[in-house]
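ok new one. same drill as before - structure tokens go in, u give me an amino acid for every spot. 159 of them this time. try not to just spam alanines like last time pls lmao
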């Protein structure tokens, strides 16, 4: 009789741990959103269910020729929702319910004109949201307008 423990049970445990680790990494890759730009403050968010609310973060597929010819995932904060009063003063200063959201730059750093969203004033339409970033150079709704709330993914801040 051998006193040497069997290697088979240890191998099954190792394979089980590897499988659980792989599944966890796969889940993290699908559910977490990592923000690598200064556009918004949180840098790690997780996908959440339900309808997003004002002040929450959302991610969405976005494409604009000024940035990329292919769609990519963009993350922003909801600054204004349906029924809120959005106003633009002096063509570049944006307000939501009289709260200042920021200004849109008229040109890029190399002098090309920016596509500023034209909306003199009024209630945000049903099913629409207006999103912004924290950074002064954030490319957000001030340049391209409203998003359909049905086309965004609600996020919760982790870090």
């Amino acid at each position: 009789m051998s006193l040497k423990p069997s290697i088979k049970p240890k191998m099954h445990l190792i394979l089980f741990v590897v499988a659980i680790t792989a599944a966890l990494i796969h889940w993290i890759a699908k559910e977490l959103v990592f923000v690598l730009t200064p556009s918004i403050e949180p840098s790690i968010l997780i996908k959440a269910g339900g309808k997003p609310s004002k002040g929450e973060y959302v991610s969405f597929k976005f494409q604009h020729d000024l940035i990329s010819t292919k769609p990519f995932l963009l993350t922003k904060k909801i600054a204004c929702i349906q029924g809120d009063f959005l106003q633009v003063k002096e063509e570049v200063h944006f307000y939501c319910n009289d709260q200042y959201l920021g200004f849109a730059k008229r040109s890029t750093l190399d002098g090309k004109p920016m596509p500023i969203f034209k909306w003199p004033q009024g209630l945000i339409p049903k099913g629409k949201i207006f999103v912004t970033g924290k950074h002064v150079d954030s490319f957000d709704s001030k340049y391209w307008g409203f998003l359909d709330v049905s086309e965004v993914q609600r996020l919760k801040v982790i870090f």
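The helical segments are 7-31, 141-144. and btw Residues 88 and 120 are 5 Å apart (CA to CA).
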